[in-house]
Amino acid sequence: MWRIITGFLLCMALWVVPLPLGAVEWPVSPRAAIAERIVPPYALGEGINDKGVYHLLNSGGAEIGYAFETGPLAPLPGFSGKPINVLVLLKLDGTFIDVKLLSQHEPVFVAGLGEKPFRDFLEQYPGLAITQNLVVGVPYGSGGGGSDLIYLDGVTKATASVRIAHESILAAALSVAREKLAGIGGGASARPDMTVEEDLSWQDLIDQGIAQRLVVTNAQADQAFAGTIWARDDPIAQDDPEGIYIDLWLVDVGAPAVQRAVFGPETLDDLARLYAVSPDDEPLLVMDYGRHGLVSQDFVRNTAPDRLSATQGGFPVALRDADLFVELHPDIPEPEAVMILRADRRLGFNPIADWTLRVQAVREHGMFHPEIGDAHFELTSSAPGRFYVTPKVVKPRPPWVDAIFNRQGDLIGLAVFLAGLLVLLGPGMTRLAGHRHYTAIRLALLAGVIGFVGYWGQGQLSIVTVLAVLRAALGDGSFQVLLYDPFSLLIWGVTILGFVLWGRGLFCGWLCPFGAMQEFAHHLGRWLRLPQITPGRRLDQWLKRVKYLVLFGLIATAFLLPDRAEKMAEVEPFKTAITVQFQREWFYVAYAAFWLVLGTVFFKGFCRYVCPLGAFMAIGGLLRGRDWIARREACGSPCQLCRVKCPYGAIRKTGEIQYDECFQCLDCVTIHDDPAQCVPLILANRKRKAA
Question: Which is nearest to 521 in space by CA: 616, 647, 613?
Answer without folding.
Answer: 647
